[in-house]
Amino acid sequence: MVEATIENKLHTDTQKELLYKLITKACGPRSLSEFAKSCGISPAHVCRIKNGMKPTKKIIMRMLSDAYVKDIGMTYEEFYIAAGIDDKAEVEEAQRFEKVVSKQRNTKALGMVAKKLMGSDLKYQLLSMNDNHDVDFAFMIIQGRKKTKWNFVMNYENLNSCDNRSVNAIYYNLGRLLSFPYAKDEQYTMLFDSESEYERMIKLVNNEQVLAKLSVVLLDDENMQIKKEAFFGPEKIEMSLSD
């Protein structure tokens, strides 16, 4: 657990109220202890921050690393403002850092998928996601006159620290998987890098409830390979990573 030095107390009641609301929002349906555990910070430390002590930039970074916090769209800027860090250059630097960090995990998975596609005879194009938060990245696959959109979704394994609450990672991922819609020229792949989470997901999926053409894939990060792939939905996907 990280136990960083508190810089000083917050200067105004407004800042205290803002930070209290931000920590409450970041916890969501979890207890404060569960949120602290997921960030690698002691619960007592988070409690002191919630009650008016100014967090360091390092602690803010820890809190923003939580998967649930990222998923609900919380930002460095709002934490900096609540903590009284009002230097414009520092806020802008935090915003740039946030964009880089948010892409790191996707980049490795994207690299593995691109490597697979480059070794095939398929023509493909990486698509811009813009404001589509349901998909982490996507390719348009071109086979003659036929085009298929291949959507990729990263699992949220960091939510696993939430024990049996509603944001438990495996059930959150399962809910996302079951929400993917069916489309004739569209397919989905959910990517895992934890074998235990992959196996749990495979056991939980009820194929009759899956609407989309879908696969669930286990990645080998170290060797940049596809280890396992399972298929679900009313129709088998047209392209797979394990072929």
Question: How would you describe this protein?
Answer:
This protein is of the alpha/beta class and 243 residues long. Helix content is 42%, strand content 18%.
Poorly predicted runs are 1-8, 158-167
Mean pLDDT: 79
- How many H/I helical runs? 9
Major sheet description: 6 strands, mixed
CA radius of gyration is 20 Å
Strand content: 15-25%
Provide the spatial order of strands within the biggest beta sheet: 1-2-3-4-5-6
Quickly list its features.
6-stranded mixed β-sheet; elongated; 243 residues; alpha/beta
Short summary of the structure?
The chain is an alpha/beta fold.
Helices and strands, with pairings:
Elements: H1 13-27, H2 32-39, H3 43-50, H4 57-64, H5 67-71, H6 76-82, H7 88-118, E1 123-127, E2 137-143, E3 146-154, H8 169-179, E4 186-192, H9 195-204, E5 214-220, E6 225-232
Parallel strand pairs: 3-4, 4-5
Antiparallel strand pairs: 1-2, 2-3, 5-6
Helix pairs in contact: 1-2, 1-6, 2-3, 8-9
